[in-house]
Structure prediction request, 150 residues.
Amino acid sequence: MRKLLLLNGPNLNRLGQREPDTYGTETLDDVITKVKEAAEENSFELVDFQSNHEGELIDKLHETEGEVSGIVFNPAAYTHTSIALRDAIASISAPVIEVHISNVHQREAFRHHSMLAPVCAGQVVGFGTDGYRLAALGLIQKIDLGEGNG
Ligand code: DQA
Prediction:
């Protein structure tokens, strides 16, 4: 079966407890369950990985090259800082959809810029944790159309 990777960056292991007014009350396990359901309904298997370490996220992007058809990625704070993650995404062929639970554009100015967006196939911002499911569905559509990161 074709596979999707759900990748989550720093502090997202604390979803549900972390700033619930901004990120909601669902846990990371709840998010994984929902994305898994969306993937399986469309005949994809879901692989998931969360790390608080930039290098581990980079390693996962490299390791899954050729194994997964697409990636839903919330890079969390690394979105705004990481040239290394941008280069890792640019180095792989699977399309990546960048997800943000909160509407980063309504927040502090330092959250308005994404280092990664220019090398991603799309972005879903401000739909709460449902954004992950929306991203997975959009990603599947792109995979079926044979579209990459642009
Ligand atoms: C976030 C937004 C980032 O600015 C922040 O650093 C996060 C979460 C979001 O999902 O809204 O950790 O990526």
